[in-house]
Amino acid sequence: MAKAIPIIIVVALAVYTLFDVIATPRDRIRALPKPVWVLLALVPALGVLLWLTVGKMPTKPSGPPRPQRPIARGPDDDPDFLRGL
Q1: Alpha-carbon dihedral of residues 1, 4, 56, 21, nearest 10 degrees?
Q2: Residue 72 pLDDT greater than 80, yes or no
Q3: 41: exposed, middle or buried (C-beta count within 10 Å: 0-12, 13-18, 19+)?
Q4: Which of 21, 26, 31, 44 is most buried by a 10 A CB count?
Q5: What is the model's pLDDT at position 61?
Q6: How far are the Cα atoms of 59, 70, 72 from residue 65, in angstroms, in the given order?
Q7: Which of 35, 37, 71, 72 shows the shortest CA–CA distance to 54?
Q8: Quick one: pLDDT at residue 67?
Q9: How confident is the model at residue 23 (pLDDT cuts 50, 70, 90)?
Q10: CA 59 to chain centre
């Protein structure tokens, strides 16, 4: 059973890489054409390492930054609440 765990991990990473290559738009792929990356993704360890290090461009944050939520305060820390007492 212990011998199967590394094999399961390598196969799972290969499947993840294959689906990630297929789902990634062509304009976010570097170095090689998409069909070549699909073939490289089928090579279990090497394909995964190459795709994660060289093949995919880093993601950019989409849209404007989200505003921070206000910090929750207790009623005794809220000046508006204390004014009403």
Answers
A1: -110
A2: no
A3: buried
A4: 21
A5: 66
A6: 15, 15, 21
A7: 37
A8: 77
A9: very high
A10: 8
Contacts of 32 (CB under 8 A, 6+ apart): 40, 55
Q: How many whole angstroms separate alpha carbon 38 and alpha carbon 17?
A: 9
Structure tokens at 10: 């390598």
Q: Which residues pair with 56 in a beta bridge?
A: 29
Let me know how long the chain is: 85
The residue type found at 53 is T
Nearest to 17 by CA among 39, 48, 58: 48
What pTM was estimated for this model as a whole? Answer: 0.64
CA angle 64, 27, 63 (to 5 degrees): 5
The stretch 72-79 carries a mean pLDDT of 74
- pLDDT (0 to 100) of residue 16: 92
pLDDT in tens, 40-59: 988 888 999 999 899 888 77
The single residue listed with the structure tokens 């190459």 is 50
